[in-house]
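Anti-anti-sigma factor
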Amino acid sequence: MQIETIKQDDGSQLIRINGDMDSQGCSELQPEFDQLVSGESLFDTTISLAGVDFLDSSGIGAIVFLFKRLKAQGKSLSLIDVHGQPMEIIKLLRIDSAISVDAAQSTG
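Structure:
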């Protein structure tokens, strides 16, 4: 799994994830999320799931963990470039009712 964190000009941060957000992938992702919420200053955060083709309960748990920690500090979390199976599971579990979710732009 590859994780890239990019500080944005508006003071927020973008996290790009490439790889499956399953148990194995999230074991690599969780320390990154822990570090994001352990600092003094938290940022509004956007996660790009363009490179994520599979999401299971471990991935949902990691996203919800980050959402709850950010929200407790008055910060927001949004998901962008969500497509395929990850979008299906997010809609099925109604995660999109709590977290802003934007679908991937189709290139057709």
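The chain has one domain: 2-103.
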